[in-house]
Every structure is written in C-alpha cells, then in structure tokens.
Amino acid sequence: QVETLKAKVLEQAQEISRLRSEQGGTDAEKHRDLLAAENERLRQEMKACEGQLRELQQRQQQAPCRDCPHLQENAGLQEQLSQLQREAEEMRAKLAELDLEVQQKTNRLAEVELRLKDSLAERAEEEERLSRRLRDSQETIASLKSQPQQIKYIIKTVEVESAKAKQALCETQSRNQYLLEQVGMQKQVLKEMEQQLQSSQKTEAQLRAQIMMYEAELERAHGQMLEEMQAMEEEKNHAIEEAFSRAQVEMKAVHENLAGVRTNLLLLQPALRTLTHDYNSLKRQVRDFPLLLQDTLRSARAEISQAIEEVHSTNRELLRKYRRELQLRKKCHNELVRLKGNIRVFGRVRPITKEDGEGPEAANAVTFDADDDAVLHLLHKGKQVSFELDKVFPPQASQEEVGATMHTAGVSGEGSHLLLTLPCLPQVFQEVQALVTSCIDGYNVCIFAYGQTGAGKTYTMEGTAANPGINQRALQLLFSEVRGKAADWDYTITVSAAEIYNEALRDLLGKEPQEKLEIKLCPDGSGQLYVPGLTEFRVQSVEDINKIFEFGHVKRVTECTNLNEHSSRSHALLIVTVRGLDRSTGLRTTGKLNLVDLAGSERVGRSGAEGSRLREAQHINKSLSALGDVIYALRSRQGHVPFRNSKLTYLLQDSLSGDSKTLMMVQVSPAEKNTSETLCSLKFAERVRSVELGPVSRKAELGSWPSQEHLEVLKTLLGDSPSSAASPGRGHASPSPGQLSSRSASIRRKLHTSG
Ligand code: ADP
Ligand code: MG
Fold it and tell me: What family is this (predicted)?
C-alpha cells in the first residue's frame, strides 16, 4: 500500500510539474509581449507613414501645381488616406481593447498560478508529513518485527493508523481532483484566449494588408505627383527657354532700333543745329513782332476806318439814290397808269360750247379784225356792228395768253417804253403782274368780270383746276413777289370773301353768313371805309387761300338751295389785303386786290319777271348801272363819283378811286342766239371806254356825263331789243341749268385746287 501510495504521490508530483509546464502562463505572457512588440512596431510604422504623408502634403503645397488637373485626384487620394487613417485608428482602438483583455486574462492567470502554487505547497507539506509518518510507521514496523508480541498490536495500530492515512489520501485525491478540474478550466480559458489571440492576429494581418494597400496607393500617388511635378518642371523650363529666346530676339530688334535711332540722331544733329538757329532768329522776330504788329494794326485800322467811311458814304449815296429811284419808279408808274388810264376795258369772246346747242342758233356771230386786236365785229340781225375796246381776246386765247396779252395791249400805246423795264419776265400774266406789283407797292386794284350768264366770267376769274384763271394766277404771283422781296420787306397778306345779293353784303368766311354787313366810315377820320364784322384770314400761301375758298364755298352751298342760280345772281368778291413794311426805310404800304365775279348782266324780261326774280333783276341792274356810272365818272375824272349808289361800288370805293387801278373784262358769247346780250355787253364796254383819255380837258368833258344820264343810257341799251328779251329762246333772262352747273363745278374745281 505504501508503495502504491508513493507511486501515486510521485505520479501526482509529475502531474503537477507537467501541469505546471503545460499551464503555459509564461507562453501567454510571451505571446502578449510579442503582440505588444508587434503593436509597437506597427505604431512606429504608422508614425513614419504619417510623417511621410505630412511631408508629401507640404511638398504638394509648395509644388506650383495649383491649377494641375491631378490636384483633384490628389484630393481624392487624400480623402482615401484620411479614411484609411480613420480605419487604422479604429483598428488601433480594437487592438488596445484586445491588449486590455489580454492583460486582464494574464492577471487572472497569475492569480490561478498563485493559487496553484499554494495548493502545490500544501500538497508538498502533506506529502512531507505523509512520508515522515510513513518513515515513522516503517521504523515502528521494524521495531515491532523485532518485538513480535507486540506486533499484532502494533499492526493493529498501524492498521488503525493506516485507515487514517487512507482517509487522508482520499481527501488528498479529492483535492487533487478539484485541482485537476481547476486546471481543465484554466486550459479552457487558455484555449479561448488562444482563439481570441488568433482572431486578433487575423485582424492584425488584415489591417497590415490594408496598410500595405494604403502604402501602395500612397506610393502610387506619390509617384504620380512626382511625375506631374516633373512634367511641370519640364514645362516651366520650356516656357523659360521660349521666353528667353523671344527676349533675345526682341533684344536684338531693340538693339537694331537703337542703332537706327543712333544713326538718326547723328543725322538729326545738324538739322537740330539749323532749327536752333532758326528758333533763335524766330525768337528775335517774336521779340520784335509786337512793335511791328502795333504799327501794322495802326495802319490797318486807319485803312479799315477809311474804307468803312467810304462804304458808309457809298451806302448813304446808294440809299439816297434808291429812295430817289423809288420815287421815280412811283412817278413813272403813276405816269404810266395815267397814260394807260386807270381803268381799262378788255373783251373776251368764249368759244362756242355744247351748251349753245346746234343749228343756226349756235352759229358764230362774232368776227375779229385781222389788223387790229382791239376791234371786234358782231353780226346782229343781219347787220355787222363793230366795237373797239382796249383789247379783244378771241375764243382761242388761253388763260395765260389773256394775262400776257393784257399787258402787251396795255403798252401798245404811248407809254410802251415805260414798261420795257420788264422784258425778261415771261410773257404770262404780265398785266396782272403789273397790277399785283402795284398792289404790293400799296395801290388798290380791282379786276371785274362783266357779262351775261354763261359768257365765261367765272371761267376767266376762277378758271378750272387744270387751267386756273386770273384769281389763282394773281395770287400765285402775289406770293412769289412777296417772297422775292422778303429780304427788305415784311409783308402780311389777309383775305376776305364776301358776296352781294339783293344789295345785301354777306361775309362768306364768317360764322353767321346770313348776317347782313354794313359798310362804314372809319372813325379815325381818314375817310377810309371798312366793314365791321367782315372776317379776315391771314394767309401765307396759295394753299391757305384754297382752304379759305373751300370754307367760303361750303358756307355758300349750305346757305342757298340753288348755288348755280344764286351765284349768277350775286356778285362774288375776293378781297386780298397786302400790308408791307420796308425794314430799311420804315415805309409802310397797304394795297388791296379786289377780284370780282359779277352777277349775270342779262336783262330780265320786264313783262315776264315777277316777285323775287324781278327784285333780283332790279338789284343787279341797279348795281351794274352804278358800277358803270362809277367807272364812267372815274375814267372821265369827274369831280363827283357816285360810289354810294350801290353796295358794290360803295364797298369798292377806295379800290376804284385815287391811284387805284381797274380792269374790266367784258365776257362775250359768240353764239347767234346770244347776240342781243352780246350787243348790250359790248355797247356797255365801248361806252365805258369811249371816254377819251387825256389831260385836264377830260374833266370838263366828264362833267357832261352825269351818272343819272348814264343810267338812262344803260337802261335804253338794256331795253333796246324787247323782242329778244321777251323771247325765251333767244334771250337770257335766266341762265341755263348747264351754265349754272358749270359755274358751280368751276367753283368746286377751283376750291379743290390746292397748289
Ligand atoms: P359765267 O360765269 O359768265 O356764267 P362760265 O364761266 O360759267 O360763265 O362759262 C360758261 C361755260 O363756258 C363754262 O362751261 C365754261 O367752261 C365755258 N367757257 C367760258 N369761257 C371759256 C373759254 N374761254 N374757253 C373755253 N370754255 C369756256
Ligand atoms: Mg359765273
């Protein structure tokens, strides 16, 4: 048993030493130390990597590749790097955790070891004690053997005592069992730890691989950066080389320029010397110049003032001559007018028209004298009657010709030389021009169209749109004359339009056309007449006049039911007033141009006419007789001129008397059926003209032409063929509708002519 026990104890000891060797606490520690050393190494490597990274960053910042396209890539790489760093940091934290765990486990292991040592010591003590007892027992046994009596007892004792040892052995065994369990547990823990260690080693390997990868990437980025830097360096070098070569070329050019400039300078030096010389001489001249200038100015001033003085005196002389010329012109004009007579009578025969019809009634009854353009023959009732006027216009005479011939007829007499001052003017409307000129000079002018209805009064005065009459041409001339004199004269031209119907004067431009106007003496005592309320429009062109015509025409049309009839039964007046101011002399002039389209002169059958028709005829007869009287009286220079016998003559008083000029155009129809009226008109014309023009003697002669007597003559004339007046077919008691409509159309055409 003792042997067995010994063997068991030995076994236990062996087991303990095995366990001790197996426990491997020192291995784990070694392992931990190894790991710690590895960690440390990794940390070192990490630090080195960071250092390199910082260095690279610095280099990158210093490197002049701010605008490099790799900058972005670099930034990406840096981002990746920081990510990797973060991951490495995490790994490091994990590693630290693992370290902590290993530390804790190591501590626990140390504790277990301590406990194991304690139990081992206990066991050793126990063994010691047991072996001592065994020895004691063996000694006892040996002594007992020598004392056989006592052996049994001793054996008993030993047996008893051996039971006790058995119990102790049992206890030791159980304790050993417990320790074994403990060791197994420790082994288990160690295994777990080993597993943990393995996993952390794996993680570490992974981390290391990642770090390697990052390092490789870093290496690559670094390589790229180096490449870029190199490329940039090359570029820089290239640019520098280029700049250098350019600069060299420029330098060369500059050198060449410099050489050129140098040669120029050399060439210029003599020029500079001459210039300096010139400059000095000029300086001297400038110094002397004020004196010279003063002298020259003095003499020039004297010359200029002398010249101005001369010009002044010449001007004065010219002005004096001009004024004298003006007076002379006026005198000549007056003389001319006196010679021509202030009143002139022309006859105009219109062509046969469709309105005259056909057959013997429409046959031509008027012939002309081939040698004398002032003579006209009328075949009346089989007898030829001849008339002499100032001028006769045949049917083929054009509107222009009428005007032109009026003039030549006018100068064919004694005063022809006086009008030779106008030879260069076109031979159109010269007579009218002369009248317009006198109007501008401040004379009053009257142009009348006299004759039976349909004889061509309106045609002569207004004309057609395509072929205007005296009115339009006279006004055109007036405006052009005024324009021509605009340098010296300021002119104001105003226009009024009026009509006289049944001895009532009406304003055709006023707001109240029906209102009857009165002719009054100017309150200023000048003896001038004026019509209060008569509208006056200022005009500056023929267009303005045409607008006014239109306005007046519209008034006239709206006021009467039958314009044709009405217009042949009324006198239409266009009064143009020209006021002038000579800026150099301050002379003021006022001239009036009266253009009158008279009412039809035809006789109204005394037995046939009644009521308003008779009243109209009486008024027309009266006013035309009065006009005839006035013209007689004026032409024969009577002391009394019966202006007041009619509204017409009274209105035109200042335009018929004094230095005023009058032109009477007697219109004649050549048709056979109109011969009675033609005879009357021509007799009237001849009688008006028959008064001899001449000096004072005429006055005495005129005295024998009282207006009343003339009226009687006229009446006789008008009534000398009652048969024709009574016959509606031959007479012209009333105008034919065709004639009337043609007159209205003529007015319309005229009004629509706006230049
Ligand atoms: P009055 O005004 O005397 O009544 P008009 O002037 O109306 O007469 O003339 C009557 C007609 O005769 C119109 O159709 C007009 O065109 C025409 N007439 C008048 N004189 C001439 C002429 N010289 N040449 C052509 N036609 C004329
Ligand atoms: Mg008419």
Answer: Belongs to the TRAFAC class myosin-kinesin ATPase superfamily. Kinesin family.
Start-to-end C-alpha separation, the chain: 171
Q: Ligand 1 pocket test: pick from 364, 405, 459 the residue with the most ligand atoms within 8 Å of its Cβ.
A: 459
Q: What is the whole-number distance in angstroms between the Cα of residue 743 and the centre of ligand 1?
A: 8
> What's the average pLDDT block by block, 10 residues per block, for the chain (755 residues)?
72 71 62 79 85 82 62 82 88 89 88 88 88 87 73 63 81 88 88 88 89 91 93 94 93 93 90 92 91 92 94 90 80 66 83 90 91 89 91 84 44 28 35 76 89 91 85 85 90 91 89 85 82 90 81 66 71 92 88 92 65 84 89 80 92 84 91 93 83 34 30 38 29 31 35 30
Q: How many CB atoms lie within 10 A of CB 338?
A: 14
Q: How many angstroms separate the alpha carbon of residue 349 from the centre of ligand 1? A: 10
Are 169 and 129 a contacting pair, CB within 8 Å? Answer: no
Distance from Cα 732 to the centre of ligand 2, integer Å: 14
Specify the pLDDT at position 541.
Answer: 85
Q: Say yes or no: domain 342-402+427-604+613-690 is CATH 3.40.850.10.
A: yes
**Is 448 close to ligand 1, i.e. is its CB under 6 Å away?**
no
pLDDT at residue 426, rounded to an integer: 27
Q: Quick one: tokens of 258?
A: 């410099």
Looking only at the bridges linking them, the beta strands covering 375-380 and 383-388 are: antiparallel
Q: Does ligand 1 lie within 6 Å of residue 667's CB atom?
A: yes
Contact at 8 Å (CB) between 39 and 95? yes
Residue 732 near residue 453, CB atoms below 8 Å: yes
223: tokens are 């390589």
Counting ligand 1 atoms within 8 A of each CB, the residue from 348, 353, 747 with the most, and so the one to mutate, is: 353
**Cβ–Cβ under 8 Å, residues 571 and 594:** no
CA-CA distance, 657 to 550, in Å (whole number)?
31
Does ligand 1 come within 6 angstroms of the Cβ of 739?
Answer: yes
Which atom, in ligand 1's list, is nearest to the CA of 399?
A: 23
Annotated binding-site members: 451-458
Query: Are 421 and 444 in contact, with CB atoms under 8 Å apart?
Result: no
Residue in this structure with the two tokens 């009428």, named with its chain if needed? 402
Instruction: Report which residue type is found at 61.
Output: Q
pLDDT at 141: 82
pTM exceeds cut of 0.90:
no
Cα–ligand 1 centroid distance for 83 (angstroms):
119
Beta bridge partners of 664: 345, 448
Which sequence spans correspond to the domains of the chain? 224-340, 342-402+427-604+613-690
Distance CA 404, CA 426 (A): 8
CA distance 615 to 626: 16
Measured between alpha carbons, how far is residue 82 from residues 46, 50, 77, 204 in Å? Answer: 13, 10, 9, 19
Residue 710 Cβ inside 6 Å of ligand 1? The answer reads: no
- DSSP class of residue 696 equals T
Which segments are annotated as binding site for ATP? 451-458
Does any ligand 1 atom lie closer than 6 A to the CB of residue 569? no
Q: Which two tokens stand for residue 16?
A: 């303990």
- Cα 671 to middle of ligand 1, angstroms: 13
Confidence (pLDDT) at 149: 63
pLDDT, residue 557, reads 60
Question: What pLDDT was estimated at residue 339?
Answer: 63
